[in-house]
């Protein structure tokens, strides 16, 4: 007796001409399987998997033939597949069957009662027993919780507007632009010009970035004297929260850099009082003083004709901002950063993110060799510094799956496809793109990555043919791209069957560690390129066009070839865990990759990244 199955994906590919539609018939219900841009390719993802326990299902191919043949809409062929054959023929979560010229792919799982996730060595021979490490981390701490304190001027709305739109207050010291830039969200126009209406208890979130929670507070002007007690009570209450997700993870205390000549002050009386009590109020809570609108100071100094405005500004900041804060707190090593969020003078954000991540990692430590969910949440929430995401990705990998890559006994019964799924999920989760359609988790993207990794054994062959334009446009945040109407073509055709090694069990595959290393490094570099491509697209949904561009940029680069050559040099006979971890880390440096990203993007066919193309087109695999 077969167990009920859950069908989440159907793919069909055939070179036969005249096929116009495909219909899945399951338990008497018909489901249309739409045509994709690939030749003879049809596919459909079911976000709510279809459950079935019937003995068979059918796929009906309908269409017409130009000559002497088929009536439009007439069924040309029907393929019947037994559910027992599906269950017995599963390779991980996937089932493949070839019927003449028709290649069919299902993605299914068995309906079994939920059970505690077993350890790797105890897991059954199905990917159901392997759970992404990030799944538990997100469960413990789904969002990075930050309090931002500073003078408030008016109320702003997060966009896009909707019935669920939440609001937060723009700060006279530049809090709004700071939050928008660091967390990759977007602010619309002023909604309410009522100064001083911040509610520190309100949890401000954005649908564009579900990994952070903002608490906004007024500053400490004389008229807001009571706010000192409000902030103090809020921080103390959060410290007592039993769950780590509800605690306060960081505080940014924002002060606008004052122009003393204009009579501006850095600190009001209330702020001075607050800073004097800092050690008692903020103990064990990572706190960073942020001096905002640094560009205003530079503009002022340049207007006075200073020979070296940057040097004069640094001296000014030290004398009029940093030293007064140190004097009031009695702490000479207090963390501080000067930032400017004005697009033409942007600076300081990367330093702020790195400093925040470092202090959060120090404050929220877990048991030995166990990753805390708070630094993971902080790394995922920020959308500016790829180095932090790569570092977090390495930390996540070392927790479980990367550590056992050299020991096949830990993966008894699992196919390479099973194992790569969880590694893929972990890496993608760390990067936290605004990807509501989950393109980065899709079967199509995973298949592209697996086929890319298949080249690791052929790293000495010539470079893949280029699809780049014969011009020297270089990628730059400041450049205005010349968009083309061309589709992004991929090196693999739609529905291409995965290479056979993906269905081998770990212990049966020779040099399996090389495939794993290549998958980890290749996926990370593709996402790093995607991060650069979408850097100025805050608030915009990720598109398949952008993903395909990033994939092509890396696939056709010398970067990928060099990585694969390095990996093939790791001999199986000398492999042990530390060698693998060290090699992966060396191929994922935390600095120095900007030039490689730029080189991969140089001269790339420029297209509209907001246009959401289909995964495959008619010219795929032809270049």
Summarize the structure.
With 623 residues, the protein is an alpha+beta fold. It is built from 18 helices and 17 strands.
Jot down its keywords.
four-stranded antiparallel sheet; alpha+beta; elongated; 623 residues; six-stranded mixed sheet
N-end to C-end Cα span: 48 Å
Proportion of beta-strand residues:
15-25%
Radius of gyration: 28 Å
Helix fraction, binned, reads 25-40%
Average pLDDT value? 76
Describe the structure.
The protein has 623 residues and is an alpha+beta fold. It is built from 18 helices and 17 strands. It has a six-stranded mixed beta sheet, with helices on both faces. Helix 11 (386-399) packs antiparallel against helix 12 (416-431), helix 13 (443-453) crosses helix 14 and helix 14 packs parallel to helix 17. It is elongated and about 85 Å long.
């Amino acid at each position: 007796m077969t167990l009920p199955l859950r069908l989440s994906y159907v793919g069909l590919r055939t070179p036969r001409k005249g096929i116009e539609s495909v219909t899945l018939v399951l338990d008497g219900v018909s489901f249309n399987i739409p045509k994709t841009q690939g030749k003879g390719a049809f596919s459909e993802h079911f976000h709510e998997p279809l459950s079935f326990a019937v003995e068979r299902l059918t796929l009906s191919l309908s269409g017409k033939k130009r000559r002497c043949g088929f009536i439009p809409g007439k069924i040309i062929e029907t393929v019947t597949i037994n559910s027992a054959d599906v269950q017995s023929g599963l390779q991980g979560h996937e089932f493949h069957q070839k019927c003449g010229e028709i290649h069919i792919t299902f993605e299914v799982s068995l309906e079994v009662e939920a059970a505690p996730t077993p350890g790797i060595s105890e897991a059954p021979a199905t990917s159901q027993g392997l759970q992404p490490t990030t799944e538990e981390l997100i469960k413990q701490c789904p969002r990075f919780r930050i309090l931002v304190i500073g003078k408030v001027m008016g109320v702003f709305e997060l966009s896009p507007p909707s019935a669920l739109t939440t609001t937060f207050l723009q700060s006279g010291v530049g809090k709004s632009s700071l939050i928008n830039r660091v967390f990759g969200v977007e602010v619309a126009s002023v909604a309410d010009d009522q100064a001083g209406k911040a509610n520190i208890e309100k949890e401000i979130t954005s649908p564009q970035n579900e990994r952070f929670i903002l608490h906004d507070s007024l500053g400490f002007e004389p008229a807001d004297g009571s706010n000192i007690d409000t902030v103090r009570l809020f921080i103390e209450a959060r410290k007592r929260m039993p769950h780590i997700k509800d605690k306060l993870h960081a505080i940014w205390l924002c002060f606008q850099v004052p122009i003393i000549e204009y009579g501006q002050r850095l600190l009001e009386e209330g702020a001075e009082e607050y800073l004097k009590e800092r050690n008692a109020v903020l103990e064990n809570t990572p706190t960073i003083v942020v001096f905002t609108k640094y560009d205003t100071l530079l503009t002022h100094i340049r207007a006075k004709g200073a020979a070296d405005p940057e040097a004069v500004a640094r001296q000014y900041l030290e004398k009029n901002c940093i030293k007064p804060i140190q004097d009031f707190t009695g702490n000479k090593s207090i963390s501080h950063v000067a930032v400017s969020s004005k697009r033409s003078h942007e600076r300081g954000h990367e330093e702020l993110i790195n400093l925040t991540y470092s202090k959060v990692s120090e404050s929220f430590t877990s048991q030995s060799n166990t990753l805390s969910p708070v630094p993971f949440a902080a790394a995922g929430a920020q959308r500016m510094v790829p180095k932090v995401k790569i570092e977090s990705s390495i930390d996540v990998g070392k927790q479980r799956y990367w550590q056992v890559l050299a020991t096949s006994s830990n993966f008894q019964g699992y196919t390479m496809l099973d194992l790569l799924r969880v590694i893929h999920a972990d890496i993608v989760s760390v990067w936290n793109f605004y990807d509501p359609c989950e393109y980065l988790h899709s079967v199509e993207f995973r298949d592209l990555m697996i086929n890319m990794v298949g080249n690791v054994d052929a790293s000495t062959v010539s470079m893949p043919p280029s699809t780049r334009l014969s011009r020297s446009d270089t990628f730059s945040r400041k450049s205005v791209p010349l968009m083309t109407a061309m589709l992004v073509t991929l090196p693999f055709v739609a529905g291409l069957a995965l290479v056979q090694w993906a269905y081998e069990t770990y212990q049966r595959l020779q040099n399996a560690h090389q495939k794993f290393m290549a998958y980890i490094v290749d996926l990370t570099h593709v996402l790093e390129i995607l991060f650069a491509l979408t850097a100025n697209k805050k608030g915009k949904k990720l598109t398949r066009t952008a993903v395909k561009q990033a994939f092509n940029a890396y696939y056709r680069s010398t970067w990928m070839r060099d990585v694969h050559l390095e990996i093939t040099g790791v001999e199986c006979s000398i492999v042990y865990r530390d060698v693998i971890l060290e090699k992966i880390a060396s191929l994922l440096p935390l600095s120095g990759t900007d030039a490689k990203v730029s080189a991969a993007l140089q001269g790339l066919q420029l297209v509209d990244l907001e246009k959401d193309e289909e995964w495959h087109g008619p010219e795929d695999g032809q270049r």
